[in-house]
Design a protein that fits this description.
The chain has 337 residues and is of the alpha/beta class. It is built from 8 helices and 13 strands. It folds into 2 domains: 125 residues, no CATH class; 205 residues, Rossmann fold. The radius of gyration is 20 Å and the shape is globular.
Length: 337
């Protein structure tokens, strides 16, 4: 369908239907001091790994010559007999680390409230070509501008062995973590999720493509899918963006000081519309079949499941008013449900 026709269909649908979608963000949680490790040691394989206990579990592993680390927060309720808790990966943004997101993201508190197991991995630290600084990066999807063009591949990350591949295999790192957690905890294999912010959001989206048969759903903020892909299974996706995100505003033409919050403005914005189209094409969703609801500080668009994939193909997009390039929480966003 031509783009103008698609947009006309979108506007007609907006005029006749409104579907309320709640945008859930973690409660306000002040950054905490680094937590004490309730257990600490290497992860698998087999008996060489370290058992998990309630609390913060600090793990290390060497993969392809790279030293990797991650934190796993396990609420006491997740270890109760008969429980099969869900597992959620939380991927930090560029220059961040897993310890930072464990302290400030609110997911540890959410784990206590829901019984889910939360995992906070740390990306490898590379030398960035643009400024020469060492900074963490996830190897996300960038077909036209891959991570290899952003980093100095001749410089090994700190602690890596000579000859280690650069960039590192981050998807393989996730595979290792999942395997170790499944082997030592009664994880519900049907409820493994991925979330992330910025560069971590783009990596969560990569997992939804390359590990679509393992990841039940993804939800991320401040990042997106730059290209169309063909996953084995369409993974339900929830994406949020702030109206004051400078990373998005820098690509608007003409330059805007703020992104639109109304549905029509969102869908006709020359920067946002292609990003939405990439996800819709990847999930196999009809660009004109959606619902929308506007509130004082947010707008949410929701695409329903398809007839061929009633439980698989769905997409929710939320615009948050006044939010810059930050992970959305109650203490930095004016819109909270």
């Amino acid at each position: 369908m031509p783009k103008n026709t698609r947009r006309t269909a979108r506007f007609a649908f907006l005029a006749s239907t409104a579907v309320v979608t709640a945008l859930l963000v973690p409660a306000a949680t002040p950054a905490q001091s680094p937590p004490t490790c309730a257990s600490q040691g290497p992860s698998g394989p087999g008996p060489s790994g370290t058992a998990y206990v309630a609390g913060v579990n600090c793990r290390t592993v060497t993969l392809d010559g790279h030293q990797r680390r991650y934190k796993v927060y396990i609420p006491a309720s997740a270890l109760a007999i008969g429980q099969r808790p869900p597992l959620v990966y939380m991927f930090h943004g560029g220059s961040g680390d897993g310890e930072q997101f464990l302290r400030m993201s609110g997911w540890r508190e959410l784990s206590d409230a829901t019984g889910m197991v939360s995992v906070f991995p740390t990306a490898m630290r590379y030398r960035i070509i643009e400024n020469g600084a060492m900074s963490t990066r996830w190897n996300s999807f960038k077909l036209s501008d891959p991570l290899q063009t952003e980093i100095d591949t001749s410089v090994l990350p700190p602690g890596s062995a000579a000859g280690s591949p650069v960039p590192a295999d981050d998807v393989g790192f996730v595979d290792h973590m999942t395997s170790d957690l499944r082997a030592r905890l009664p994880i519900d294999r049907r409820r493994i999720y991925a979330s992330g912010f910025s560069n971590g959001a783009a990596f969560a989206e990569r997992l939804s493509i390359e590990r679509s048969e393992e990841i039940a759903a993804v939800a991320y903020s401040g990042g997106g899918l730059p290209d169309v892909h063909s996953p084995t299974r369409p993974v339900p996706t929830y994406r949020t963006t702030g109206t004051l995100d400078p990373n998005v505003l820098a690509n608007t033409n003409p330059l805007l000081t703020e992104l639109p919050l109304d549905p029509v403005g969102i869908l006709t914005n020359s920067t946002l519309d292609p990003l939405l189209d990439n996800i819709l094409a990847t999930l196999g969703l009809d660009a004109g079949d959606f619902g929308a609801v506007s509130q004082p500080h947010s707008t949410t668009l929701r695409w329903p499941p398809t007839g061929t994939a009633p439980n698989g193909a769905q997409f929710t997009f939320g615009m948050i008013g006044g939010l810059t390039h930050m992970y959305p929480k109650a203490d930095n966003s004016t819109f909270v449900v």
